[in-house]
Amino acid sequence: MDTRYRWQAYFPIIAIFLSACAPNPTTPAVLPTRPPPSASLTEEIQSPNSTDDALPPKLFIVADPSMHRQIQQHLLVALQDLTADQGWALEQRASYPAEDVDSQLRVVVALPPAPDIEQWADLSPQVQFVAVGISGLGTKHNLSLLGANGFREDQLSFLAGYLAAVITPDWRVATLIDEGAGIRAAGFRNGMIYFCGLCRLTYPPYYDYPLSFALKANRTDEDWRQAADFFAANAVDTLFINMQLGDTEMLQILMNSELNFIGVSMPADAERWIATLRFAPEISIREKWNDILEEKGGWRAEIPLLVEDVNQELLSIGRLQWIEKMIDELQTGFIDPSVTPISPD
Predict the structure, then answer these.
(1) How far apart are CA 161 and CA 266, in angstroms?
(2) CA distances from 160 to 166, 172, 179, 271, 328 (A)
(3) In this predicted structure, what is the pLDDT of residue 28?
(4) Backbone φ and ψ of 266, nearest 5°
């Protein structure tokens, strides 16, 4: 048989064999399926709290913008540094949103008046509160007191009177105060007398130092001129300005005199400025910051008194050490300014 036709004989057999090996066309192929995501993974993706958790913790400083402006400014600078180190957000508030506190709030630093701060602490037990210069409060697990007796104007004025007497020949000193601020005048007098006793003058004019002059709230240029004339006529050498210096243009009338000055805030271009005496609650806030972060509330601390802007030509290092010792003795209660009441004016 011719070989060309020999393979043709085998074609039917090969076709039958191939048809037996082919898959059944009526049987569908089964594909593997992906299992659904677990319940925990679904909750993590869709959780309504996941966005909140990504927000930084918050600290509120609650204060009336019209009160204690200098203290607010120094506190704000300190708190900006501390919260920045922690990656926290800092907000200034005129009031506390007691009924609408978000979950990120961790700390509230409040200045007077804040009459409801104890209720705030009860309503927000997860928040640490620090009351600065607010008297009449008790501590709680989340309420700490910085200056439980308020801002001690009697101590500050006593310190100023003592400092003025230390550096002024014949103790010819005076204080400039707001109208009605009798505590400040009394504290200043007691501080001077503590240093010099009878304070007898060695040469005329023989006035009854220390003197005080009160300015009205709505003071004018003429009021400042009367104050300057009063101090000049009474041979005052050192003046303690115990008021906030918002109206600096009017103050320049006084600055043009031959007086040396102590004050609670230093104005610009004050050539004869001796030193600034002020309350410095930010020092205690920095010292207590770790306790605040660790939610160790319920502590008490004093509001430090600070001497700064020192002119060493008018206040030597040795005399400054006397003043710093006096601060320690005042704040530990070893020396009593003997002013009643002790609450702020």
Answers:
(1) 17
(2) 10, 13, 18, 19, 14
(3) 42
(4) -90, 120
N-terminal to C-terminal alpha carbon distance within the chain: 135
Percent of the chain surpassing pLDDT 90 = 67
CA atoms within 13 A on the CB side of 331: 21
- Reported as a single tens digit per residue, the pLDDT across 44-78 is 333 344 445 688 999 999 999 988 999 999 999 99
Please give the average per-residue pLDDT across 223-229, as a whole number: 92
Q: Are 285 and 75 in contact (CB under 8 A)?
A: yes
Read off the pLDDT band of 219 (50, 70, 90): confident
Quick one: three-class SS letters along the chain?
CCHHHHHHHHHHHHHHHHHHHCCCCCCCCCCCCCCCCCHHHHHHHHCCCHHHHCCCCEEEEECCCCCCHHHHHHHHHHHHHHHHHHCCEEEEECCCCCCCCCCCEEEEEECCCCCCHHHHHHHCCCCEEEEECCCCCCCECCEEEECCCCCCHHHHHHHHHHHHHHHCHHHCEEEEEECCCHHHHHHHHHHHHHHHCCCCCCCCCCCCCCEEEEECCCCCHHHHHHHHHHHHHCCCCEEEEECCCCCHHHHHHHHCCCCEEEECCCCCCCCCEEEEEEECHHHHHHHCHHHHHCCCCCCEECCCEEEECCCCCCCCHHHHHHHHHHHHHHHCCCCCCCCCCCCCC
Query: What integer best gives the mean pLDDT of the chain?
Result: 85
Q: Give me 316's structure tokens.
A: 């030597």
Output the CA–CA distances (angstroms, integers) from residue 209 to 165, 182, 197, 202, in the order listed: 10, 16, 12, 13
| Phi, psi torsion values for 286, nearest 5 degrees | -65, -40
Q: What is the pLDDT, as a whole number, of residue 267?
A: 84
Question: How many Å apart are CA 213 and CA 156, to the nearest integer?
Answer: 18
Which among 156, 247, 252, 174 is positioned nearest to 214, based on CA atoms?
Answer: 174
Distance between CA atoms of residues 190 and 158, nearest Å: 6
Are 146 and 165 spatial neighbours (Cβ–Cβ below 8 Å)? no
